[in-house]
Amino acid sequence: MASSRQIELAREAGKRIHHFHGGLRLRHNKKISCLDPVERPPLPEVLVVPLLQHAGDIADPLVHAGDTVLKGQPIGQCQPCAAIHSPVSGLVEAIEDRPMSHPSGQKGPCVVIRPNGKEQWIELKPLSNWLDANPDSLITQIQSCGLAGLGGAVFPTHTKMRDGRDRETHTLILNGVECEPYISCDEMLMREQPDKIILGARVLRRVLGAEHVIIAIEDQMGSVQRSLTGSAEFAESENISVVKVPKIYPEGGERQLVQVLTGLEVPAGGRPSDLGLICQNVATAAAVAEAVTEGKPLIERYITVTGNGISHPRNYLALFGTPVSHLVDCCGGYTGDVARLVVGGPMMGYPLESDKAPVVKASNCLLALSHQDIAEPQPEMPCIRCGECARVCPAMLLPQQLHLQIRNELWKPVEEYGLSECIECGCCDFVCPSHIPLVDWFRYGKGELRKQALESEAVELARKRFEDREARLLRIKQERAQKMAHRKQMLKGKTAQQERIQASIKRAENRSRSMPEEQSSGERDDT
Amino acid sequence: MTRSFQTGGAPHMPPQTTVAKVMLQVLLALIPGVLAYVWFFGPGILVQITLATIFALLFESLMLRWRRRPLKPFINDYSAVVTAVLFALCIPPLAPWWISCIAMLFAIVFAKHLYGGLGQNVFNPAMVAYVVVLISFPQAMTSWLPPVALAEHSLGLADTLVTIFTGRVPVPGGWDAVTQATPLDTLKTGVDAGRMVPEIRNSPLFGDFGGKGWEWIANWFALGGFFLLYKRVISWQVPAAVIGTVLLISLPFWLLDPDSNPFPLQHVFSGAIVLAAFFIATDPVSGCVSDRGRLIFGAGVGIITLLIRRWGGYPDGVAFAVLLMNMAAPLIDRYTRPRIYGE
Question: CB A374 to CB B342 under 8 A?
Fold first, then answer.
């Protein structure tokens, strides 16, 4: 838990730039995708909208195969998750399992929609007087519009905002730091839609009751700063500042950004809201502005299509459900030596098995890498404990020790050495001279820890159940014994009574027996 | 038209470096020191390096084959070569050829592969090898050469080869004509005999700080060490702790009694302190992992070396100090886990 002193210090966020431990300076490779203005690609033939797009459960479908849907119509709901909406007007062809663009690579339920090309919107319900609206109705609007963090983690926005509103949040941080190489969608958004971002920031600030907004951008994004501070919305707003931070990967990570802006660390196991801070991606803020002032649900996003495997890299404003292959075709197709297709950046992105997978809320970048980009898989060597991994680890862990402990299944030390604090940024993996897939090991280790926690929970439950049963049996036995004793007592009481009766009968009998004797004696006396 | 792709784990970038590159940088960093060594003490060291490397690679491949490990990646990682070169730098340049053979047998087979090979050894293999031959063959291991400038007879390459392979010195006077005690040895026997340090230092064997020649070799090793620091192959904690501790601890002794204690810089520039600080105690496999742990490790090496130099039976104690600290490394690691983010 953060102390009140730390919260006070956090209020100074953005006034000075601090450092975080480790990190890497990587080559950006962003320019290649920033040359053309962002456009909407032509409608694809079919859109495949997965029902699992957020951290959380699979949404329940609200439509059936054969239904006609309007653009923006809810097609999936999931409490307490965010809703999912139809990106086009058209016909629902099927609801079936398809590749859903998920790190697991698994198939899942998707709504397959064939657009009719009419682009008929559902009736939108904006909150035009948002300045007077109460925060709860704003949060409800955000939830019903299906908003989720567009930075890549897709945490439902309304949950985070509710958490921020319930605590004393003083500063909203808008994250415009795209620290991964190649990705430029947030940069393009900030260049092209600064008003929307700042409007969204004001809405979010109102929801949180916060005072300040900090928009964090990389120090090399000169034009972005001009566009943000030069926007009309910015001129009208107060207490919004644009702060440049040095470009070191993974500075865009929430915890690292908080540390750079405040010099404070988010308490272990806690959240930035412990310090009175809420972080949102700039794209989320823009989506919030659309959701509140236009009533527009989240059905599209900026996505970077780039890499040496793409003929003409650029950014698109793509509808969710658009097959990746469609975007690649719009970019002039693959180049000859494309080797791997990744969703996200080269450090943390996940590979796609096929370009059939659709664009989802989390897809910030589609990266087609050539053979030179990924290089031949090198043989894994033993760890030589050089410690380079520990030097670059932004969570200040000792990856080499964790790796050894996970390999030897020493789960207690693994927990002690803080595996749960690993943010899977991949820095250790990248610098490892022995080419040990450290992040893979850490994901496996985290899975094992989760499994063990569940198991121990189950064991605990079983133990409790057993103990309860034992206690119950004991109680029943005791009760029965008590009852028996009681009955015995009763019975005993009865017999005592009977005995008394018997005794009195006996006495009476005795008496009656002795009576004639007396009589006889009396008679005798008489005689 | 859809297309399928090969998948693979993140990060999707070629790795920044390899074990082989790390080891090559270490070898590269040793070059200036080795050249200085040749300049001051003749070509013997080159022969020793070659011999040790050949034996190291021989035992390495035998062990890899025996353990059914792939030969190529492990031979090409140059770790055995680094062990061999570091060992060769510790022994007298005229040591007989079989010294290298026995030493590399212990370094590669016993200290390295019997513990599980690369990355698994508890002890620094080069130091294990050095200590084994130092204890077993004291005479061969103490026949040191004076700097070329002071030598009556300096041996050329051919004479050096003959000496190393036959054990006979092909100059009049034999061994006695070419060998001389090291400055550290001279110092130790001198002090033990009750002579005063300034008096002992009048011997032509001594230079400005350490032994003549030796101090310059140390400088060039330090230069290589700075290269490794710059390349971030090693971290600053170990060399700083080793040298800092030696200076700090020897200073009060020297201030109190300059007649029987050498001055701090003499300690640093004599023997193997500089080489050990940058190249031997920094061996990551047998050292500590955390920054604090490395400081403690380096300080331990410095303290134990001084203890052995002052009160031990050997003129220099770096190898023993490193091995003793290797033993303590896991324990130090256990108590120096760095604070985690947010903790």
Answer: no
Interface of A with B in 35-54 (CB under 8 A): none
Contact B119 A401 (CB under 8 A): no
CATH (residue range A4-338)? 3.40.50.11540
pLDDT in tens, A196-232: 999 999 999 999 999 999 999 998 887 899 999 888 8
Asked if residues A228 and A234 have their Cβ atoms less than 8 Å apart, the reply is yes
In sequence order, the 6+-apart residues with CB closer than 8 A to the CB of A429 are A436, A437, A438, A439, B10, B11
pTM: 0.86
Q: Give dist(CA A206, CA A220) in Å, integer.
A: 30
Among the partner residues A341, A390, A431, nearest to B5 by beta-carbon distance: A341
Dihedral angle, C-alpha B323, B328, B329, B335, nearest 10 °: -170
CA A20 – CA A250 distance, rounded (Å): 10
Per the CB < 8 A criterion, the answer to whether A43 and A88 are in contact is yes
Residue from the list A353, A401, A430 with its beta carbon closest to the beta carbon of B16: A430
Residues of A in contact with B287 (CB under 8 A): 385
Residues A483 and A506: their CA atoms lie apart, in Å, by: 33
Selecting from 1.10.287, 3.30.2010, 1.10.1740, 1.10.1060, what CATH number does the domain A388-527 have?
1.10.1060
pLDDT tens for A138-153 read 999 999 899 999 987 8
Q: CATH 3.40.50.11540: which residues of chain A?
A: 4-338
A426 touching B, CB under 8 A?
A: yes
Of B4, B70, B337, the CB nearest to A398: B337
How many beta-carbon pairs below 8 A join chains A and B?
170
Task: Determine, for residues B13 and A334 on separate chains, whether the beta-carbon distance falls below 8 Å.
Answer: no
Q: Within 10 A of A11 (CB to CB), how many other CB atoms are there?
A: 15
The token pair at A237 is: 């707003």
Q: Where are the domains of chain B?
A: 18-180, 185-336
Q: Which one, of B98, B88, B112, B71, lies nearest residue B30 by Cα? A: B88
